[in-house]
Amino acid sequence: MSLFWRIFALNALVLGGATALLLWAPVTVSVPVLLTETVILLGGLGVMLVANAALLRIGLAPLDRLTRQMTTVDLLRPGGRLPVPGHGGVGELIAGFNDMVERLEAERAASSARALDAQESERRRIAQELHDEVGQSMTAVLLTLKRAADHSGGPVREDVRLAQETTRASLDEVRRLARRMRPGVLEDLGLVSALTALASEFATHTGLRVRRRFDSGLPALDRMSELVVYRVAQESLTNVARHAEARHVTVELSGTAGSVTLTVSDDGRGVGLARDGAGIRGMRERALLLGAAFEIRPLPGGGSAVRLTVPVPAAPVASVPAAHASAPAAPAAHASAPAAPVAPAAPAAPEEGLP
Predict the structure, then answer these.
(1) CATH homologous superfamily of domain 184-354?
(2) Which has more pLDDT, 64 or 322?
């Protein structure tokens, strides 16, 4: 039944009931109208209005649910749909709303994929320029300062040495930024080695204790999935350093036959009622790109946990096995941390802390 006929039927029911009451009830109306008759008529009108309001509320309840749902729709949290109550105008309206949300989610996922791809391309370009242009220029400055220090003496030499140290520290920072923008270890050694290097660098620069727990024999992911997992871990650690006021961080990577799960937890002050910032929205968009499940939840003993569950592609691309084929070389690159699990074939690493 359409919305028009539903409202018509409800009003007809009320008016029909009032007409039947007037026909069969011992009620008369005098001219002029008496006070008692006025009270009865006004009481009957009130009953009609209340009955009409109650029936309309019941009949239009699906529209109220639709209105509430429309105010809570978040394209970064897909899946929210209203049940369609049969056929008719209201059912068609709700079905149309569900179809609209589904199209918006698909368009948002497609636009996010294009935006993130452009973002990664720009990251690679900037990282290359930092490495080639800025890095080489600062290296040339270091060599010039070294020659100046060799040919100077007294207080001038000390000033030149200080300028050398400042330039060297700036060069190291530029290289670190370039590595963060373009994780070459992810392309060369795979996801586990990249997360190991990320955790080690994070612990070095923040002074926090980082524990790594990586399962062995993780399912193979394609290049885009590995990049999303790495970026989510990177942003999660950045948020911990900036906002959590934590002392310990745990990075876990586990896998099943159909998914790979990344969990980054800390013992800080937790998420509380804070609104999603740009970093969290970016993580949600990356998860949406893969159809992955993403959640941020508080922990019972304090702190928070970020969890990303990525579905394993049914047919991994050909480049994934090649990328992991170089993983056996990882132990040499991480010889300083023998317990770090860097190869998929290695046994499961025990809980490990970084200073």
Answers:
(1) Histidine kinase-like ATPase, C-terminal domain (3.30.565.10)
(2) 64
